[in-house]
């Protein structure tokens, strides 16, 4: 005699939002699946039989106990588990007394009582019963008896449902081995054990082994039972779930469609197993981002479950939750939130506030709120989910760690960076301990922590995290896995924001190539990589290539997402910025107007992205000298940002600065200086708060971090868009510099430097920028000794923070050379210029204009020391490079010609000197006009040379600001 199959639901797909279930079949008794009428009939027959026996023989008779047991079976079949439990306990008590604890019938009652307890979710009690049955059967019947093996199998089931996976696996392997030996490899009960072993392997994430088991079960069941048997269809479903968890979505979809078709035919459209297959197919379609098809499936599953099971059934609530997830994937945020609230309300009522499914709904509602930028509400949900999961599941459970991570993301969205970092570090530590350093979830937390550090401008640490995540993902998942490609992308963003543009470009090209191959040319992630590559090319001023990328991203997004999608509008805005960089002002204006119109319609007039487009349109109009229109835009952007973000927000201060720039160009110096001072005061206020978010950010993230989307997008800032608010702090000083008011300029820079050192520390990149600018101002004031001290501070700080060969470090080294040269410390200046020129050529290339500036200054320092021959050769190098890079009419090229004429003159090479003087005069007049000051100066130098061999002084220049 065989006993009935147990039914237990469990997650097979490793996705929080979706649930696939497996029902246990296999072990036979008169407890196979039957119509409800047959179950009722069985109960109706058992009750009179029991009553008759009790009347004839009295209670406690052996036959009476058999009837009690059979009534329990009949009740159990109908799902009346609590009533069945009472009958089983009554039969067990009587049999123990009449037959003894080790009698086979007594042990059968123990086993059935364990099954009834299991089906009520009383797993601890069920485990005790099944262990007792197993121990008794081993003693009475032997290890290999079918009843003993049945107890092994049932104990494996209850251990599984307690998530004691290692013990469950041991039991199922033992049951399988015993059944193979006793019944053969193709017996239905053997195949049932194969299936159960596949399930427990799946839940241990041993997907490859699980797949082998499910394929074996499917093949055996097709042969033994037929293609349309419910158990065969169950194996198809379970194989689909395992393929899903391996991210083999195409194969998983085929399996779930096949299971659905078979179940519709065999069981009907409204059968719970059919509805389960509809749900699972929806889950797989969702994972393929086929959201429209997934929505159809989940709506169908929901409708069927509401009708068959009722609105408050756990499976109905699961469908509501899954539909919410799919709507979320379609960015139908309001509807998604509504579904998750409905699922949560139902689960709290049906399951209780602390049930894992209730906590899952709280988590998913938090996710939906987060993606609507309702960060405060999201934080409340994630704190609630975390508290519940810690209590119900423990601090180290995967779901608990997921809630810690999600809370970190919500805090990140509110710019509570310190708290967010604590959460992300806690999630990472927990996952390393629970899952191992190379587990995909651990690597996901490493990536999230990298994003968090990136937002805090801790660029070195962020880069380190992203490199670690990338290395781990390449090893664990392969070079072409979407998560690996995400890490490549995020590392590219981190490198970009450190101005390591060459390395960033390499990463973005690699991410793009991988995503095109793995996901296709029109996939949103591929289009994101195209956008990010365009942003990095833009930052390198490779505008033509950047334009190609942004046009390609725009075309793809219009096709894939529609003309009004936020990502499409971002591409329009970025294309406008690149056109602006190419000085294609009319086209840039057209793009920014289009982006603004779309964002007003899609996002509203006060959305930050809309206000960004208003700002950028103002920039484009400014570039065309349409000052009145530009002023309207900048005032509108400023008013909107003050209202939406506050007066001291970095974007508000940016608009203040841009308006000041515009007023300056309109020669409205009074209002311009007042406006700039307002920006400075606001920035200083933020600096006193110690808020790192006011610091420069050369490329925005295009969204808040969530579920590994920490900074997928890079937005381009137009010229004058000035994303760094440090400029706002210093901009009054910049204006004073333009007006040659260097004394007041010094005051402003000292003021900014004091605030930055206090708020950020002396070695922060932007503190060092201000230190360098103050040094240059002191040079302008001819306070060379003070300038030398300030610039040395900048050099030491930048070497420590950025490295010896970083462009900004070399900038300060060059400026230190200028300060030394002006104090007649020519040899020390020469040492500085040699170091700067060699390093700049190595880092930037021999023909980079910054490297050529260092070569030029080195030549001037050599000239001052009367090292004529070397000075001449070095000036020839600078001239050749500048002609190649900047062109013959550039002012720097013309300056090199003049200096070369001077050094030739000092060596008494009068013929060659005359050629250079004439060339300087002719080319300067041609390039700049006869009345330009450099043309007048070159003409005067030529005249003086022709009158007498008098020499002209050589000099040096500072690195351009």
Quick tags:
single chain; about 950 residues; mainly alpha; Serine Threonine Protein Phosphatase 5, Tetratricopeptide repeat; two-stranded antiparallel ribbon; 2 strands; about 0% strand; disordered N terminus; disordered C terminus
Summarize the structure in short.
It contains 42 helices and 2 strands. With 961 residues, the protein is mainly alpha-helical. InterPro entries: Kinesin_light (IPR002151), TPR-like_helical_dom_sf (IPR011990), TPR_rpt (IPR019734).
Question: What secondary-structure arrangement, pairings included, does this model have?
Answer:
Elements: E1 7-8, E2 22-23, H1 36-57, H2 62-77, H3 81-99, H4 104-119, H5 123-141, H6 146-161, H7 165-183, H8 188-203, H9 207-225, H10 230-245, H11 249-267, H12 272-287, H13 291-309, H14 314-329, H15 333-351, H16 356-371, H17 375-393, H18 398-413, H19 417-435, H20 440-455, H21 459-477, H22 482-497, H23 501-519, H24 524-539, H25 543-561, H26 566-581, H27 585-603, H28 608-623, H29 627-645, H30 650-665, H31 669-689, H32 726-738, H33 742-760, H34 765-780, H35 784-801, H36 807-821, H37 826-844, H38 849-864, H39 868-885, H40 891-906, H41 910-928, H42 933-947
Antiparallel strand pairs: 1-2
């Amino acid at each position: 005699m065989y006993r009935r199959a147990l039914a237990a639901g469990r997650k097979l797909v490793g996705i929080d939002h979706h649930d696939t279930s497996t029902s246990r079949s296999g072990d036979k008794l008169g407890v196979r699946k039957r119509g409800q009428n047959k179950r009722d009939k069985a109960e109706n027959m058992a009750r009179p039989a029991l009553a008759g026996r009790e009347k004839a023989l009295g209670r406690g008779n052996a036959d009476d106990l058999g009837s009690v047991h059979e009534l329990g079976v009949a009740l159990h079949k109908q799902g009346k588990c609590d009533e069945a439990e009472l009958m089983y306990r009554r039969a067990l008590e009587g049999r123990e007394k009449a037959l003894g604890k080790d009698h086979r019938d007594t042990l059968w009652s123990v086993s059935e009582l364990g099954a009834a307890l299991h089906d009520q979710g009383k797993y601890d009690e069920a485990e005790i019963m099944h262990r007792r049955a197993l121990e008794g059967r081993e003693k009475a019947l032997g290890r290999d008896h079918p009843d003993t093996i049945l107890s092994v199998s049932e104990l494996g089931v209850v251990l599984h449902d307690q998530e004691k996976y290692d013990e469950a696996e041991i039991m199922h392997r033992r049951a399988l081995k015993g059944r193979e030996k006793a019944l053969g490899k193709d017996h239905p009960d053997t195949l049932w054990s194969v299936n159960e072993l596949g399930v427990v392997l799946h839940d241990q994430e041993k997907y490859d082994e699980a797949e082998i088991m499910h394929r074996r079960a499917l093949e055996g069941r097709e042969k033994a039972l037929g293609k349309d048997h419910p158990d065969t269809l169950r194996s198809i479903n379970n194989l689909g779930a395992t393929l899903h968890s391996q991210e083999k979505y195409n194969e998983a979809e085929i399996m779930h469609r096949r299971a659905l078709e078979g179940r519709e035919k065999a069981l009907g459209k409204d059968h719970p197993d059919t509805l389960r297959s509809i749900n699972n197919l929806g889950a797989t379609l969702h994972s393929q981002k086929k959201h429209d098809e997934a929505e159809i499936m989940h709506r169908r599953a929901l409708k069927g479950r509401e009708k068959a099971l009722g609105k408050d059934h756990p499976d109905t609530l699961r469908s509501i939750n899954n539909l919410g997830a799919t709507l979320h994937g379609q960015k139908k945020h309001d509807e998604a939130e509504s579904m998750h609230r409905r699922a949560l309300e139902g689960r709290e009522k049906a399951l209780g506030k602390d049930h894992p499914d209730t906590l899952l709904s709280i988590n998913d509602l938090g996710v939906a709120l987060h993606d609507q930028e309702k960060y405060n509400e999201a934080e409340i949900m994630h704190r609630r989910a975390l508290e519940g999961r810690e209590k119900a599941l423990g601090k180290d459970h995967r779901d608990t760690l997921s809630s810690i991570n999600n809370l970190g993301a919500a805090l990140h969205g509110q710019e509570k960076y310190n708290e967010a970092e604590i959460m992300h570090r806690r999630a990472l530590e927990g996952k390393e301990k629970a899952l191992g350093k190379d587990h995909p979830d651990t690597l996901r937390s490493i990536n999230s922590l990298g994003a968090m550090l990136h937002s805090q401008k801790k660029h070195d640490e962020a880069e380190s995290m992203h490199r670690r995540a990338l290395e781990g993902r390449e090893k664990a998942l392969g070079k072409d896995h979407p998560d690996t490609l995400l890490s490549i992308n995020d590392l590219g963003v981190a490198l970009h924001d450190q101005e390591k543009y060459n390395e960033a470009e390499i990463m973005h090209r690699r991410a793009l190539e991988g995503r095109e191959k793995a996901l296709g040319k029109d996939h949103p992630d591929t289009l994101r990589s195209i956008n990010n590559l365009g942003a990095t090319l833009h930052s390198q001023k490779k505008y033509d290539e950047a334009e190609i990328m942004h046009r390609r991203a725009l075309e793809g997004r219009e096709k894939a997402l529609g003309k009004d999608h936020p990502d499409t509008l971002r591409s329009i805005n970025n294309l406008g910025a690149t056109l602006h960089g190419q000085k294609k002002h009319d086209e840039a204006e057209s793009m920014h107007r289009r982006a603004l119109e779309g964002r007003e319609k899609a996002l509203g007039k006060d959305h930050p992205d809309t206000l960004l487009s208003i700002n950028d349109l103002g920039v484009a109009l400014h570039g065309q000298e349409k000052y009145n229109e530009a002023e309207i835009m900048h005032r509108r952007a400023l008013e909107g940002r003050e209202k939406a973000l506050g007066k001291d927000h970095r974007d508000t201060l940016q608009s203040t600065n841009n308006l000041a720039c515009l007023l300056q160009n309109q020669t409205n110096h009074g209002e311009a200086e007042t406006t700039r001072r307002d920006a400075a005061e606001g920035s200083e206020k933020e600096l006193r708060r110690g808020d790192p978010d006011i610091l420069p950010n050369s490329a925005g993230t295009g969204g808040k971090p969530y579920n590994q989307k920490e900074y997928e997008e890079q937005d381009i800032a137009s010229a004058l868009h000035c994303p760094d608010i440090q400029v706002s702090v210093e901009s009054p000083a910049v204006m004073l510099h333009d007006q040659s008011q260097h004394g007041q300029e010094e005051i402003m820079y000292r003021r900014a430097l004091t605030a930055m050192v206090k708020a950020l520390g002396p070695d922060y990149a932007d503190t060092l920028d201000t230190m360098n600018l103050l040094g240059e101002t002191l040079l302008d004031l001819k306070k060379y000794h003070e300038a030398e001290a300030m610039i040395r501070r900048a050099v030491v700080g930048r070497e420590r923070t950025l490295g010896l060969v970083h462009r900004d470090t070399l900038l300060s080294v060059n400026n230190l050379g200028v300060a030394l040269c002006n104090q007649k410390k020519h040899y020390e200046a020469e040492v500085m210029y040699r170091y700067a020129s060699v390093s700049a050529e190595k880092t930037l290339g021999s023909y980079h204009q910054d490297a050529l500036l260092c070569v030029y200054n080195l030549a001037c320092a050599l000239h001052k020391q009367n090292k004529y021959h070397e000075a001449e050769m070095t000036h020839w190098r600078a001239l050749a490079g500048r002609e190649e890079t900047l062109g013959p009419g550039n002012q720097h090229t013309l300056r090199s010609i003049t200096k070369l004429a001077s050094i030739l003159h000092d060596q008494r090479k009068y013929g060659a000197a005359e050629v250079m003087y004439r060339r300087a005069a002719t080319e300067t007049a041609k390039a700049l006009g006869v009345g330009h000051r450099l043309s007048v100066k070159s003409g005067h130098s030529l005249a003086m040379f022709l009158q007498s061999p008098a020499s002209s002084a050589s000099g040096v220049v500072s690195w351009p600001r």
